[in-house]
Amino acid sequence: MGIVRSENLTKIYTHGRVEVRAIDGVTLDIEEGDFTVIAGPSGSGKTTILNIIGTMDSATHGSISVGGIDITNLTKGERADFRRDKVGFIFQNYNLIPVLSVYENIEFVLDLTRRYTAHEKKEKIDNLLKELGIENLAERRPSELSSGQQQRVAIARALIKDPILILADEPTANLDTCTGKEVVDLMEKINMEKRTTFIFSSHDPMIIERARSVIRIRDGRIEGKGL
Amino acid sequence: MILRMAFRNIFRHRIRTILTLVSLAFGIFIIILGVGLNIGMERRIISIMRKTEVGDYKIYGKGYFEERYDNADDRLDFLVPEETALILKSYEHSKRLVFGGTITDGIYDYPVRVIGGDREAEEKIFERSSYLTEGEAGVVLSHVLAEDLNLSVGDSFVLIGTTSLEGLNAVDLVVTGIMKTGGLEFDMNTLLIDYELAKDFTETADYNDIVVRGEISSEHKRELEKLGAEVISYLDELSEIIVVTRLKIKVVMILSSVILIMSGVGIINTMLMSMLERQREVGVLMANGMKPKDIMKLFLSEGAILGAIGSGIGFILGGGLVYYYEIVGIALPDVAHKMKTTIPLSDRIYGYFDLRLNLLFLLFGIIISTGAAFYPAYRATKLNPIDVLRE
Prior knowledge:
The complex is a heterodimer. By secondary structure, chain A is of the alpha/beta class. Chain A is about 35% helix and about 30% strand. In chain A, α3 packs parallel to α5 and α5 runs parallel beside α6. The longest helix of chain B has about 40 residues. The two termini of chain B are about 25 Å apart. The interface between A and B is medium-sized, with 30 and 23 residues.
């Protein structure tokens, strides 16, 4: 069953009198548990697709559903709820909150859901930190971590709420090859073990090689699908 | 978590935060100190005046109180009807003759207010003996007057004044005591003599000023007024002093509010800079599902915490100092004694620590600070996470 389905998705940005079609008639069908890369050069529309799937942005035309929920016309509040409950984000710059420790950076995501007691939160976070091999970093601040460690924490933050989907925007762009490989290994392992769907936007050949499906995009249009 | 984040965000830029806190603390400090000292001064003056001069009620001849400043030299024309004595029988009171006179040291004439009263009654109402710095009751000079005239106990002087029949009179008197009450006006120009002496001097058989200690029943008040006497409570008697003090309190509050508003503008600036620096973080919070109302809460909490800390420091410092002055007091410099003023002052200023009022000022500081955070908070809620995460 497709976890992400879109029909004729179009996003038009208006800059003054100029209209820019960031994506143009994109139709997607991404399966649950997939490890998919949306690949393409800079400015091709990869991030825009990811933003629309993650309800950070909305399409100008077309329709899209994620996890069986039609997200095309959600209100601002509904989109925030959707992001809180269903989607995990991993960013190129990790984007950890500098005033919070590693533990707290993960905890605040659970706090937003308001579904867990303090004890449940602790158990869940401790388990995940162990799983990702960063339990010894729990009390550290992001500034005390290496790039690879920061990205692992970002992965933990995305995973903690058991999302149906993780969207990773150029997750290896700021990492050296070796660390980038470790991070991709980790995400692949999670994908295999938990069957969490990963959708990347990337032009990193290493990610593209490891992906189980690749959507190639250029100038906002899909050029091709498959490996 | 929002509170924890808010608290830590505040201390990201310590210098900036400290400067903001200092301006807020200063505003609250000034408002608490200014108001505390003014209220303390008002209470002290009222207390001294009640203890030494006004009692709880004053009874005058009809028409005197309304025009007391115009008729200051004609006090003997406003006598209290004799029948009032019957009504006041059950009250602790002192019947006096109060009039203006002059004492001369041969070079200068010193205007004095002469109070002629019954020693025993005056002692009961005012505990006059407790204010004697030397000597005993009889002819008692206030200490500033004695210093100005260079008079000590046992020295003689001449009192000059007008009688009720508009004639001039003069009498040689010997100082039997010197008193100090702490009330500057009283200490500066008052001469206490026995009632009989006052009666002879002014050629008056009655009284023009009765002081009553305790609450006069409304029935008795009506009866006194029917007899043609004026019954004036100490609050009415001191109403002008109270009005002046309240006005001073208002001025302090307005000035302090200006300081606080300036602090508020500083907080808007600080929070706006902080918001602009943290746009990406706001984007991350939004990406993780934080709603605008929670972003608003985060920034308002920062404002509130800043307000609580800054105002708290001001509250502790200002309140502490006022409390200290409430116990110890501040001695007025000698120059205040030398002031030839009719403004009633006391020789020491005491603070008055009103917890409820000061807590209100504390709350005011927090509200100003939280209010100042509103605009930056509002701007933060309007950020587009896509834009700020892309930057």
